[in-house]
Structure formats: structure tokens, C-alpha cells
Amino acid sequence: MSKYVPVKGYSGLVRDTQSNALINVDTAEIEQARQRKRLRIEKRKEESDLKTRVENVENTLTEIKTLLRTLLDNSYK
Prior knowledge:
By secondary structure, the chain is of the alpha+beta class. It has one domain (4-75). The protein contains one helix and three strands. It has a three-stranded antiparallel beta sheet.
């Protein structure tokens, strides 16, 4: 008896007869899923990096504004 049985209606799936697990044997679909996952991870990293850069710019602007206020306050004394 074969260890795997094809699942009716799903060409890329087989069922393991011992564990009753469904197994995807469509290698092209698996590779596409891996590629989608890589792209999601890259996008999240880019978004995180962009968020960090924006926070750094905001902090720098706050520091510049504080220094300008200090300069202005000192010039009026």
C-alpha cells in the first residue's frame, strides 16, 4: 500500500495514510509561497527602517527647535 493517497479535487495535495496529514506536493506553489513570505518580511523591514528614520528626523527637528528657542531667548536678554 502506498504511503500517500491523492486528494480528490486537489492535484497538489496528498494524504499520508499513517498520520492522516495533508501534504502539499506542488513544488511551484510552495516556492511561490516562500517568495511571498520573503517579500512580506522585506516590506516589514523597509517599513520598520522608514519608521526609525522618521523618528530620528522628528527628534532632530525637536532638538533644532529647542536650540533655536534658546538662541532667541538669549538674544532678547
